[in-house]
Write a structure and sequence with these properties.
10 helices; alpha/beta; 18% strand; five-stranded mixed β-sheet; six-stranded mixed β-sheet
Length: 285
């Protein structure tokens, strides 16, 4: 469920199973590989979620239908190479042979250390985590860098969970939760539906290093161009705002997951943040 952890593997390029009849024509259907559950970005019903809805709408604006294939993260590279699906949703920007990388990153994932402000108002660095009971997402030690792995290596009060137990923070069963904030909020609402205005009680500590941007990789240039036209149209018509507003209302999701798209098409929404973050992908807002 976590993009920077196990939710995605940078996609390897491959030779297409079948090329388009014409490079200028887009296929009627594309197959997109998604991680099984990355709530609230991909929900457990395998039919919705913020990411799934935006991808579906972008292609629909170009008269293209999508078929989502939900896979364990460990199979993404192999399945793309074998031609099982056409599009990977989280490639790095590093050049690889074959395939067509999106011209700009599409999604952004930034994990943080989350605490109750009344108990732990500040954390200075990752070493501070050693003092507390910590719960993180599965495989966090493998993906959050050597400093985090070293700090948690022999920590007696550290564990990793398959499903983010956000509610345990308010039940005094842990001191720190390592999560992407939107993921944390989603599970908090499920686990403690009576909890209102939880953000006022929370502190989000940016001590785990920079977030990670993800590009999409397409089997054909026509697929990439269709998707990018579709995203531009969602911004032009305001459809992306309507999708985001629905998830903000239902799950308290922020715009951070699509900050790279906002910085591409609506930099005026967050000019300072866009200027800072664009350095991370070498882009210009």
């Amino acid at each position: 469920m976590w993009l920077t952890a196990v939710v995605f593997t940078a996609a390897a390029a491959a030779t297409p199973v079948a090329e388009l009849a014409s490079v200028s024509a887009s296929p009627a259907t594309v197959k997109i590989g998604l991680q099984s559950v990355i709530a609230p970005f991909v929900l457990s019903d395998h039919a919705s979620g913020l990411y799934a809805d935006v991808l579906r709408a972008a292609f629909a604006s170009q008269q293209i239908t999508v078929e989502f294939l939900y896979l364990p993260n460990v199979r993404f590279e192999e399945q793309f190479r074998q031609g099982v699906f056409d599009i990977t949703t989280a490639s790095s920007s590093q050049p690889v042979l074959g395939g067509y990388l999106s011209r700009w990153p599409v999604s952004y994932f930034h994990n943080m250390a989350i605490t109750l402000r009344s108990r732990i108002p500040a954390l200075s660095n990752v070493e501070d985590l050693k003092k507390y009971r910590v719960i993180a997402f599965r495989n966090a030690q493998k993906v959050l860098g050597p400093a985090y792995a070293a700090a948690m290596a022999d920590h007696p009060n550290y564990r990793e969970a398959v499903t983010m137990p956000s509610g345990t923070l308010f039940l005094d069963r842990t001191d720190v939760i390592i999560s992407q904030p939107d993921v944390f909020r989603y599970y908090l609402k499920l686990q403690l539906p009576q909890k209102r205005n939880a953000d006022a009680e929370l502190a989000f500590h940016d001590v785990l290093g920079p977030g990670r941007f993800y590009w999409m990789r397409f089997r054909t240039e026509a697929q990439r161009d269709a998707f990018e036209r579709g995203i531009a149209q969602l911004y032009a018509t305001g459809e992306i705002d309507r999708i985001l507003e629905r998830y903000q209302r239902d799950y308290h999701v922020t715009r951070d997951f699509f900050i790279a798209l906002d910085c591409r098409f609506r930099p005026e929404l967050s000019p300072q943040k866009c200027k800072k973050l664009s350095k991370g992908w070498g882009g210009t807002p």
